[in-house]
Structure formats: structure tokens, C-alpha cells
């Protein structure tokens, strides 16, 4: 029999792992395509708490079953597996003995090293990625604080310059400062000097200020700089035909 060939592409694949015993555990796992299915099962033991000898693996693409990983000797790379797919672990291991159930207290479980909880903590995965969550929260709070500080500078009637990525720098006058119904955060309503806006001061039929069509726009406070910004000279005479 000819040896199985590993599918072309990257040497590693990243898939989502789901578990029939605990629907709340769903992790992303990266592993080498050179592993056999049997070796992969051994690695999944510590993550799922299952037993490699009795577990069954199924490969899914979304909700569609691609194949069942039934041959422990086959290489993962020989399977039709791609990054983004999901491996579902079915654990058929059951103890059927008449003994008193053994349970650990939460404090005892916390001291053990070979547990799913300890694995997640060490690898900063799932809900235990506290540092990343803390950094995201700090970034969000700093962004909110910056928006509040910039919004306080945007006085109604003040001249301003608006800079939004992907758009030309525009000048105009602050006409609104506050919230917009159905949207989060603070918005600054600007009446532009030229028809470079998207509305007439209204959003979804609600008027926040009035101006000519296409002269109005609403942008975040961080996009607005208030100061001495007189209307730019276009070089065109008003009576030019």
C-alpha cells in the first residue's frame, strides 16, 4: 500500500474544538498536520477531560459533517481538514461501578495541575485571558475619555476642521453636539462649507440641525478640531457661469 500523503499547504492547521460532554468548552487549537489521529486524541484528553481510547472525533465545516476520524493511524494532514473547521469530540467513556462518588472541593481542584482549568489558565484561553480583557477595557475607557474631552471643545457655532480617514479634510461650523437616536457615543454635527457631507442635518428622519442638502454630516469628536478655520478660498467667483 502506498503511504498516505499530507495535503499541500501549511504544516499546521487551526481548528475549533467542541465537546459533547461540555457544550461550554469551545476552543481554538493549532496543531501539526504530521500528527496521527491517535496522537491528536491524546492531546485532546487534557483539554476535554475525555479518554483517548474511547473518544470519537468528527470533522465539521460549519454545521456540515465532513468526515469521521476513525483510523487512529492516519495522519491529520491526509484528511480534508482546513483552518477554520471544527473537530467535535464525542466521549463514550463511562464508569459503571457501584462505588461512592468521589468529588473534589473547588479549593482542592484549584491546586491540581493536570486539569482543564489549569490548562486554560496557563495558556490564557477562554475566560481566563484576564490580561487581554483588562487591556481591552482600559483601551475602551481611554477612548471614551478622549471622546468626552474632545466633545467638550466642540462648542455650537465654532469653526472646525474635520479629518476622517478615506475622506478629504473638510472645514465647517459645529451645529450639534450630543447623541444620535439608535447609535452609541457622542456625535458632532457639522455644517460643511462645501457640499461634501451626506445629509441636511437629519438622520433617519430626525432633524438635529438644518442646512442645505449634502452640507451636513455627523462625526466622532476625535475627528473634529475646533479653531480658527476660515472658509477656504476655492478661487471661483460666485457670479461665474
UniProtKB/TrEMBL annotation:
GO terms for molecular function: alpha-tubulin binding; microtubule plus-end binding. GO terms for cellular component: cell cortex; cytosol; microtubule plus-end; nucleus. GO terms for biological process: cytoplasmic microtubule organization; post-chaperonin tubulin folding pathway; tubulin complex assembly. InterPro entries: CAP-Gly_dom_sf, CAP-Gly_domain, TBCB_Ubl, Ubiquitin-like_dom, Ubiquitin-like_domsf. The keyword Phosphoprotein does not apply. Residues 178-220 form the CAP-Gly domain. It holds the Pfam family CAP_GLY. PROSITE patterns: CAP_GLY_1, CAP_GLY_2. The keyword RNA-binding does not apply. It is found in: Cytoplasm. Belongs to the TBCB family. This is Tubulin-folding cofactor B. It comes from Ceratitis capitata.
Amino acid at each position: 500500500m502506498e503511504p498516505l500523503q499530507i495535503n499541500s499547504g501549511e504544516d499546521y492547521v487551526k481548528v475549533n474544538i467542541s465537546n459533547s460532554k461540555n457544550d461550554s468548552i469551545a476552543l481554538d487549537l493549532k496543531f501539526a498536520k504530521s500528527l496521527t489521529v491517535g496522537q491528536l486524541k491524546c492531546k485532546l484528553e487534557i483539554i476535554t477531560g475525555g479518554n483517548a481510547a474511547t473518544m470519537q472525533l468528527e470533522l465539521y465545516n460549519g454545521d456540515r459533517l465532513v468526515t469521521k476520524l476513525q483510523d487512529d493511524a492516519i495522519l491529520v494532514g491526509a484528511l480534508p481538514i482546513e483552518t477554520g473547521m471544527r473537530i467535535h469530540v464525542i466521549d463514550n467513556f463511562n464508569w459503571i461501578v457501584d462505588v461512592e462518588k468521589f468529588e473534589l472541593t473547588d479549593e482542592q481542584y484549584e491546586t491540581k495541575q493536570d486539569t482543564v482549568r489549569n490548562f486554560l489558565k496557563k495558556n490564557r484561553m477562554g475566560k481566563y485571558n484576564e490580561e487581554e480583557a483588562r487591556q481591552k477595557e482600559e483601551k475602551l475607557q481611554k477612548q471614551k475619555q478622549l471622546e468626552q474631552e474632545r466633545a467638550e471643545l466642540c462648542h455650537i457655532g465654532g469653526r472646525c476642521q474635520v479629518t476622517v480617514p478615506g475622506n478629504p479634510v473638510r472645514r465647517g461650523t459645529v451645529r450639534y453636539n450630543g447623541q444620535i437616536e439608535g447609535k452609541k457615543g457622542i456625535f458632532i454635527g457639522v455644517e460643511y462649507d462645501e457640499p461634501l457631507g451626506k445629509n441636511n442635518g437629519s438622520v433617519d428622519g430626525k432633524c438635529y440641525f438644518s442646512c442645505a442638502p449634502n452640507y451636513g454630516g455627523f462625526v466622532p469628536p476625535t475627528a473634529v478640531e475646533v479653531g480658527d478655520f476660515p472658509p477656504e478660498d476655492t478661487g471661483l467667483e460666485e457670479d461665474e457661469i
